[in-house]
Design goal:
The chain is mainly β. 12% of the residues lie in helices and 36% in strands.
């Protein structure tokens, strides 16, 4: 018996795959902030778009090589005098988790919030940082 192909079901199956979640980070939310993860010689840098969110309401934890970012974007109070033509902004709780490499020094993690962007600095352990080896001439 032939089954009708449903592309959205197939896409959902891909996103639910454990390999995908482990590789690209777990997301548990109705809406999730966009996140960039960058790396240089000194650190990993996670940048999350969190406009309209009070940074005091954002929780960042690092435990057993897993970075977890969670918080909530609260809905603005609706006016009874207004009739909406379009509602595109999403509200609600979010949780994002990322598996960190063992090179991250979990004791030195720091974060800053500016212009609606949360930046989490994850410094590398000293032994994980690249070092230059001089070649001696004989």
């Amino acid at each position: 018996m032939l089954a009708r192909w449903e592309p959205f079901r197939e896409l959902a199956r891909v996103f639910d795959d454990p390999f995908f979640r482990t590789t690209f980070g777990e997301a548990s939310c109705r809406w999730c902030p966009a996140v960039d993860v960058a790396e240089n010689d000194k650190e990993l840098l996670v940048s999350a778009d969190l406009p309209g969110i009070d940074p005091k309401q954002v929780e960042i934890t690092v435990q057993e090589n897993i970075l977890t970012l969670s918080g909530e974007r609260k809905a603005e109070s609706e006016s009874k005098d207004e009739s909406y033509h379009r509602v595109e902004r999403a509200y609600g709780s979010f949780t994002r988790s990322f598996v960190l490499p063992s090179t991250v020094d979990e004791t030195k993690v720091s974060a800053e919030y500016k212009d609606g962007v949360l930046r989490i600095h994850l410094p590398k352990r000293e032994e994980a940082k690249p070092r230059r080896i001089d070649v001696k001439m004989s």
